[in-house]
């Protein structure tokens, strides 16, 4: 059944749904916040009768709906059976990040009746488990600023769905001692490369600095590794595109996320950009000590 692009926005309270919806509105989406799930089929029916006047719609559905939210899976099943096409965007963040955000904003969690924020966050995560499993796209916002989240929303939902070059590739460097990025598709461990941390004049620099880049990239093992990595990535990307994947996150990790991973993330990003891919390079842990 033809109709507008219907995006269901859901996820953890405090994970950034408000910022995501604001970004979608800027992209021209017709947005409805906190719509009771039982009304979604009626809303979809109205949209199908709009004769193309509304071509992109975002509906925010989350646990603020209280008892109504329990109907969401049944409603989505009904939508599918009726031939309506939709996508689900799920936003999440770590428990620690969500607790911190609630403490900073001094807002009450929708499920909080006893003042224990961590407990209700865990309860909410369990309530959202099934719809998270159905999500077409999951964005982990723990390490994202509002502008970075907006950038991802614009990149993923701002273009033409039929654009053959619509795959957004994010190359992110990270430090293993701070954990692997939760939303990674590919995780590349480069801790086997010689570590500039043990060279006094390079220790306080990062992979954004030329001396570190020269040291890491001049190693024979690095040159051989980059050739193999590029062969691997070049093989995968067309297959991801053929499957309709909207985003690909390649996480490159070293011990602290300052030297080797940053250098190789920059290098891979430059090469993919030269090959006309849409690329976003981020360094998650470069400023940590």
UniProtKB/TrEMBL annotation:
Annotated binding of GTP, by residue: 62-65
InterPro entries: P-loop_NTPase, RapZ-like, RapZ-like_N, RapZ_C
UniProt entry tagged with the keyword Oxidoreductase: no
Keywords carried by this UniProt record: ATP-binding, GTP-binding, Nucleotide-binding
Taxonomic superkingdom: Bacteria
One MF annotation (Gene Ontology) recorded for this entry: ATP binding
RapZ C-terminal domain: residues covered: 168-286
Domain RapZ-like N-terminal stretches: 6-160
HAMAP family according to UniProt: RapZ_like
UniProt name for this protein: RNase adapter RapZ
Organism encoding this protein: Desulforamulus aquiferis
Lineage, broadest ranks: Bacteria, Bacillati, Bacillota, Clostridia, Eubacteriales
């Amino acid at each position: 059944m033809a109709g507008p692009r219907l995006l269901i926005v859901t996820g953890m309270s405090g994970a950034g749904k408000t910022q995501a919806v604001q970004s979608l509105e800027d992209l021209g989406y017709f947005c409805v916040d906190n719509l009771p799930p039982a009304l979604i089929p009626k809303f979809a029916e109205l949209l199908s009768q709009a004769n193309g006047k509304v071509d992109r719609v975002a509906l925010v559905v989350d646990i603020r709906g209280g008892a109504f939210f329990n109907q969401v899976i049944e409603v989505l099943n009904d939508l599918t059976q009726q031939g309506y096409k939709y996508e689900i965007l799920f936003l999440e963040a770590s428990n620690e990040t969500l607790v911190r955000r609630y403490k900073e904003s001094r807002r009450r969690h929708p499920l909080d009746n006893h003042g224990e924020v961590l407990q209700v966050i865990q309860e909410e995560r369990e309530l959202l488990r099934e719809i998270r499993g159905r999500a077409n796209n999951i964005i982990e916002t723990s390490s994202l600023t509002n502008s970075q989240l907006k950038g991802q929303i614009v990149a993923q939902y701002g273009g033409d769905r039929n654009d053959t070059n619509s795959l957004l590739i994010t190359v992110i460097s990270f430090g293993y001692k701070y954990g692997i990025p939760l939303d990674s598709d590919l995780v590349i461990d480069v801790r086997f490369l010689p570590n500039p941390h043990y060279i006094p004049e390079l220790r306080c620099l990062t992979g954004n600095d030329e001396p570190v880049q020269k040291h890491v990239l001049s190693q024979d093992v690095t040159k051989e590794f980059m050739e193999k990595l590029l062969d691997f990535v070049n093989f995968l990307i067309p297959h991801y595109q053929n499957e309709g994947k909207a985003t690909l996150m390649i996480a490159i990790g070293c011990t602290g996320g300052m030297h080797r991973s940053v250098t190789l993330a920059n290098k891979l990003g430059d090469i993919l950009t030269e090959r006309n891919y849409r690329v976003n390079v981020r360094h998650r842990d470069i400023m940590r000590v």
